[in-house]
Amino acid sequence: MSPISLHNGVKESQGQRMDAENKAPVYLEGATSPKGSTQDEGVRPPHDPLSWPKWKRNTQILMIAVHSMVSTFMAAGIVPAYDTFAEMYGVSVHTVTYLTSTQILLLGIAPFVWKPLTTRFGRYHICVLSVLGSFLCNIGGARCTTFGTQMATRVITAWFISPPIAIGSGVVTELCSKDERAQKIGWWTLLTTIGVPAGPFIMGFVVQHIGVEWVFWLFAIINFCQFVAYILFGKETLYPRDLEGNLEPPKAPSFPRSIFPHRIDPRPVTATDFISPMFLCRFPRILVPSLAYAITFAYANIVIVVEMPTAFGKKFNFNAQQIGYQFVAIIIGCVLGEQISGRMSDSFIRLLKRRRGHAAPADRLWLSYIGFATVFAGLLTWGFQLQNATTWNVTPCVGAAIASFGNQILTTTLITFAVDSHKEVSTDIGMFVNICRQIYGFTGPFYLPLMFERFGLGGAAGIFCAIVAGSALVPIIAIQFVATRKP
């Protein structure tokens, strides 16, 4: 080495050391250590969640995924009781629908308050508080005698149960490598999506055979079971990693101290923390898939779920239990779609790595075109077959299953692409995706009835396909084109 290069090297190292000394330690969720660190070499502290046994990591992901499912399950689970509520509270069925739409809105907004708390105090204690608060509110829901008090319990319940619906992507990133990320994000997205049709499916039997108040008692029982599961198996997954390598993250406290909240990240909470996820709109690789997913989810999932009781109830005079049967098609479609979008997506990325030596996040988007094609086919089948049916037949349900199949492929594929592109803000991505989905879905009840009345189910389904094609498919083609050529 020449004297000049040696001198330059010494100056560079001194400058780096001075920068490190002057720079405050940075804690980022899901961040990885720089190359050459002990963590990259596979040596991690035993309290690092990435060093846990696979069964332990999978247990935490499943508990968060089930928690997310319960949030949408409870919002949609009251759908079969609309007629009963209208009679009990002396209001119209249209007014009763606000019990669900308000929860949808709160599930999108409330995580903005919870997220800064989960990054400072961790996921575990916030999740325990979440299920306890929801448990108490559901007991109150079973005792309500007026529409106003029931609305209050639904609003507070949605507020408490909302944290995991947004932090799921962050938990998966904290516990998984890139090679298995799509599969594990798929667990979270699948259960979150299934919660929407599973709620009316199960509660249709409850309303028909036991009584509407038992809808809330069962919600409370589910929350209590979640509480027990968190106490027995739950662990803190947030592990602050200092990117500069200056500090060793604190060890997790031992039992029984671990059951009491304690601060993990010493940074103060600022006003910016509550709105920071909205700043992600400046990243096209987050904004485009989030909006594409929100639009597709609204028309390939929410529309079918919300319209199912009205269409089948009026057209075929179905009761709550018979309407509940129709939701099985949506569940089957979601489960089958996840087999393509999760495990196959990860296998596709591994195959590309073996053949080309590398794989880009945009390579996952090739699978999204299967999703778009099946969403179009399913929506049109569901709309026209249901509109033309004079007696019940299975074809509208087949269309719903096909649309749900495509919707689930798009859900996991688009969210995984966004996380892979900016995994350093994985939790914020989950929140941004969630707020886009919930707000766009919330607007549906204000214009969907008018569309169905004016254009019919078939015509409305055609319009939905046109909206998805222009507002979701075309932007995804564009972002893949750009991302493939500009890593």
Automatic annotation (TrEMBL):
<feature type="transmembrane region" description="Helical">
    <location>
        <begin position="155"/>
        <end position="173"/>
    </location>
</feature>
<feature type="transmembrane region" description="Helical">
    <location>
        <begin position="126"/>
        <end position="143"/>
    </location>
</feature>
<keyword id="KW-0812">Transmembrane</keyword>
<feature type="transmembrane region" description="Helical">
    <location>
        <begin position="185"/>
        <end position="208"/>
    </location>
</feature>
<feature type="transmembrane region" description="Helical">
    <location>
        <begin position="88"/>
        <end position="114"/>
    </location>
</feature>
<feature type="transmembrane region" description="Helical">
    <location>
        <begin position="214"/>
        <end position="233"/>
    </location>
</feature>
<feature type="domain" description="Major facilitator superfamily (MFS) profile">
    <location>
        <begin position="60"/>
        <end position="487"/>
    </location>
</feature>
<keyword id="KW-1133">Transmembrane helix</keyword>
<feature type="transmembrane region" description="Helical">
    <location>
        <begin position="61"/>
        <end position="82"/>
    </location>
</feature>
<dbReference type="GO" id="GO:0022857">
    <property type="term" value="F:transmembrane transporter activity"/>
</dbReference>
<protein>
    <recommendedName>
        <fullName>Major facilitator superfamily (MFS) profile domain-containing protein</fullName>
    </recommendedName>
</protein>
<feature type="transmembrane region" description="Helical">
    <location>
        <begin position="286"/>
        <end position="305"/>
    </location>
</feature>
<dbReference type="InterPro" id="IPR011701">
    <property type="entry name" value="MFS"/>
</dbReference>
<feature type="transmembrane region" description="Helical">
    <location>
        <begin position="455"/>
        <end position="483"/>
    </location>
</feature>
<dbReference type="InterPro" id="IPR036259">
    <property type="entry name" value="MFS_trans_sf"/>
</dbReference>
<keyword id="KW-0472">Membrane</keyword>
<feature type="region of interest" description="Disordered">
    <location>
        <begin position="1"/>
        <end position="50"/>
    </location>
</feature>
<dbReference type="GO" id="GO:0005886">
    <property type="term" value="C:plasma membrane"/>
</dbReference>
<feature type="transmembrane region" description="Helical">
    <location>
        <begin position="365"/>
        <end position="384"/>
    </location>
</feature>
<feature type="transmembrane region" description="Helical">
    <location>
        <begin position="325"/>
        <end position="344"/>
    </location>
</feature>
<dbReference type="Pfam" id="PF07690">
    <property type="entry name" value="MFS_1"/>
</dbReference>
<dbReference type="InterPro" id="IPR020846">
    <property type="entry name" value="MFS_dom"/>
</dbReference>
